[in-house]
Amino acid sequence: MKLLKRYSIALAALLLFGLLFFYNRDLGQEASGTILMSLKEMATILPPVFILLGLLDVWVPRGTMVKYMGKDSGVMGAVLAFVLGSAAAGPLYVSFPVAAALMKKDVKFFNVLIMVGAWSSAKIPMLIFEYSSLGPRFMLTRLALSILIVIIIALVLNSVMKDDEVREIYRKVREME
Amino acid sequence: MHTKIFYGVTIVLLTLSLIKDRGKTKKALIKAWKSLENILPQMLAMIVAIGLIIALLSPETISRIIGGSSGWWGVLLAAILGSVTLMPAFVAFPMAAVLLQNGAGYMQLAAFVSTLTMVGLITFPMEVRFFGRKMTIWRNALAFVFAFLVALVIGKVVVL
């Protein structure tokens, strides 16, 4: 029953999908194609991402993460965060649990923001897709802009969020699971 | 290719972990499952919702809205369209290429792709769970605004 409640939104979406199928077979088939492809992508990408997160959680001591990406990690920490985000795989929402794992290890908020930003707009697999479908000029221009924008957004968010609000986010993340 | 590297690294590290400490490895795997299960319900709902939206928005419909002559109005609509739907890259970019062939403009496409990847209304509740309401609103709003900068620059650089 609890399980049913937890998955109620997913079931509702599925019901909607069923209705679409009834209403228009072609549209339903098109939707099911995309859904199956997404599920396949998730099924391949999620296991390694989450296993790596688990290993990070267990093996890498907080001190190490703080040293490389924490309060005093400087530019290197931000660069590391950017590389982490752009080397990742999976859509943007997969970056949220990764951000949570980093926050649990006391990674600096600014660096968490850089990681999420890089994940959203400068992911390597995404760039390859972009290159082959829209050309090098489009891809490179957007990449250069994205790097700039990721930094600006991180700076703005970092200053908009008050210290106690950030602390609250970190506290909530620790309480999860 | 990318996925293979990912799997390779994971397998190597997991094996090392197993050799070093079985108990800790088990703990890591339990944690992995727990944090995955944490987002699983919302994720499944999102995957279905995104599939529905993509099916309803045909390339013809979209390129009519964001055609090359649609100007800043088209850029705005493209940005809004991109914000609603959060697409995986393997759908988004081939689709963008089709849109281009169907007459969508570069500027409009740039705005579309930007909000597509950075702004997510469907993922909003999930983002709130991790970052809280304030930060989620700000992040999405900022990303939305910057999509126009991307459109402006791409319009200048690519069309040349």
Could you characterize the architecture of this molecule?
The complex is a heterodimer of chains A (177) and B (160). Chain A has 177 residues and is mainly alpha-helical. Helix content of chain A is 85%, strand content 0%. Chain A is built from ten helices and no strands. The radius of gyration of chain A is 19 Å and the shape is globular. With 160 residues, chain B is mainly alpha-helical. Chain B has two domains: 1-56; 58-160, no CATH class. Chain B is built from eight helices and no strands. The two termini of chain B are 34 Å apart. The mean pLDDT of chain B is 88. The chains are: A mainly alpha (177), B mainly alpha (160). The interface between A and B is large, with 81 and 77 residues.
Short descriptors:
heterodimer; A: 177 residues; mainly alpha; 2 domains; 10 helices; B: 160 residues
Q: Short summary of the structure?
A:
The complex is a heterodimer of chains A (177) and B (160). With 177 residues, chain A is an all-alpha fold.
The chain-level structural class of chain A is mainly alpha
Helix content of chain B: over 70%
Strand content of chain B: under 5%
Oligomer: heterodimer
**Cα-based radius of gyration of chain B, to the nearest Å:** 20 Å
Main sheet of chain B, how many strands, which sense, barrel? none
Unreliable sequence segments of chain B:
none
The arrangement of helices and strands of chain A along the chain is HHHHHHHHHH
Note the total helix count of chain A: 10
**How far apart, in Å, are the first and last alpha carbons of chain B?**
34 Å
Quickly give the structural class of chain B.
mainly alpha
Average per-residue pLDDT of chain A, rounded, comes to: 90
Which radius of gyration of chain A do the C-alpha atoms yield? 19 Å
The number of domains of chain B is: 2
Percent in helix of chain A: over 70%
Strand content of chain A: under 5%
The chain-level mean pLDDT of chain B equals 88
Q: How many structural domains can be distinguished in the coordinates of chain A? A: 2
Shape annotation of chain B: elongated
The count of β-strands of chain B is 0
**What's the total helix number of chain B?**
8
